[in-house]
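hiii, so i know i said id send this last week but things got crazy w the move. better late than never?? heres the sequnce for the chain we talked about at the cafe, plus the structure i predicted for it. fair warning i was half asleep when i ran it
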Amino acid sequence: MTDRLDILTSWHADWRGLRAVVLGMSVTGFSVADTLAELGADVLVVTEKADEEYERLLPVIGARLWTGRLDAVPAELPDFRPDVVIASPGFAPSHPVITWIRESGIALWGDVELAWRVRDKVVRADGRPADWILITGTNGKTTTTRLAATMLVAGGLKAAPVGNIGTPVLDAVRDPEGFDALVVELSSHQLWYLGLQTGPDPVSPHAAVCLNLADDHLEWHGSFEAYRDAKAHVYDNTRVACVYNKADAATQRMVEDADVIEGARAIGFDLGVPGPSDFGVVEGILVDRAFHEERRTSALELTTIAELRDQGLAAPHVVANILAAAALARSLDVEPGAIRDALRSFRLDPHRIEVVAVAEGVTWVDDSKATNPHAAASSLAAFPGAVWVVGGLLKGVDVSSLVRERGIRSKAAIVIGVDRAHVLEAFGRHAPEVPVFEVDADETEDVMARVVELAAGIARDGDVVLLAPAAASFDQFSSYADRGSRFAAAVNDRIARGADDEHDDTDPAGGPTR
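okay and structure toks below
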């Protein structure tokens, strides 16, 4: 069957009768099943559960559905004798079903590999499919994906942000209108599956970037080394530009070790003065010294820190994302003026260093999207001395270094979440002088009300209260968005009611936890 799979590298190949299992059913899983069914494959969806809408639609498109426990390999899977399994990125390498598939020698793909194979369903006027730009990193992926797509559109290209950002890549490649470029956000899970590619036509992006690297998703990958190796696959077979973060040596090593197409360039970015082949900042001006004929002696201006500040985009980590996105856009010949125009209309998504209110001289900032220590460190760098709201589900990540390097500068810390004991211990060991307050509310509805009550008692005129949890939200909230929305609602509720008492010099609720 390997020989047949090797020739299935086009929408126009003969996919009929291919026995394909779709493992997991969500928006992405349905896009896989729908694509395979349209191609004429024999499709079996195997999942623990499926929404009613999918249960209704799968028979309509000609796919079969099996639901049940997947803590062991169900008999229906080997009985089907699949030629290939396309797995949801939620299935970790250690999952028993994934282990069985690999040990059985069955081809294992992710949705991104399938999308690459059928990317020629709709082609451009020159007969070629859309160029792909790949974006990953521990933090900043979604913002950079949106930025790059916005810049490409401003430059006159038909482009779309797809992948982990929300819209399945398969939906984009099947769009009858077609695209000039797809900006594909990839998680480490998706990249692990890409690393399994063995066919003759592997994913080969026009440009790629790993924005940064820090501990995350260790419970899925099993180790930091495995997580790093998965992220590094973003650069595999890059044709034109391998963009990396000069301030993060791990990303540079990825580029140095990558197997790329001959002629691909390494393009660095950071907040310092750029060298030739880099993007950076000179006296408050963001510049390109990479895609410029006179790059050894001059640079092209993209925008200024002052303009970005007016747009709420001047936080250092956001500026870094802008430089990375600009490098990707410039690799497709987008003019500097178009990049500047794109930035003038760009707004960050909710819950990303979002100012939710300013009252009584206190600024309340929602960065609930800071779901790991690396992201929280960027927020704390942007707002030093803030009253820091931290904690949640740590996913096996140690916050000690974050507290030691960034948390120690906080005015106070308010600790929430199921793993708050680890956070409290880190403060006790590394920042004992910082006042720490523990929120032990068990009910979701009570958590943020208590947080805001404590923060209001601590903060004074000129202070910032920063929600940057450095942890996942699922212990107490349905999502990071739910967590941020509840924080904003509690802030606005307090402002609407007005403070019951004037600020005084006593600690709230009788004093800190320690």
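btw Residues 37 and 62 are 6 Å apart (CA to CA). thought thatd interest u
miss u guys!!
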